[in-house]
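Fold Annotation — chain and its backbone

Encoding — discrete vocabulary of local shapes
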Amino acid sequence: MTQATLDDRGRLTLPKEVREEYGETYYVVSLHDGIKLVPVADDPLAALRDEFSDVEKTASELREEARAGAIEEAGR
């Protein structure tokens, strides 16, 4: 874990090793007990392709499964 401090203008400088690993752009997410920095990929579409590269179903198949699951869940 690394500690970072705001400067007098409210800016936060992340350590070089964090920037090198996660990049330069982040979403700041407010949580009930603090904040979370979520890295934004330089190429979000490529990041999604990488994340879901092992999924063998089409978007239509996944959507239909989700719809069927929601209908089943609602009927309980």
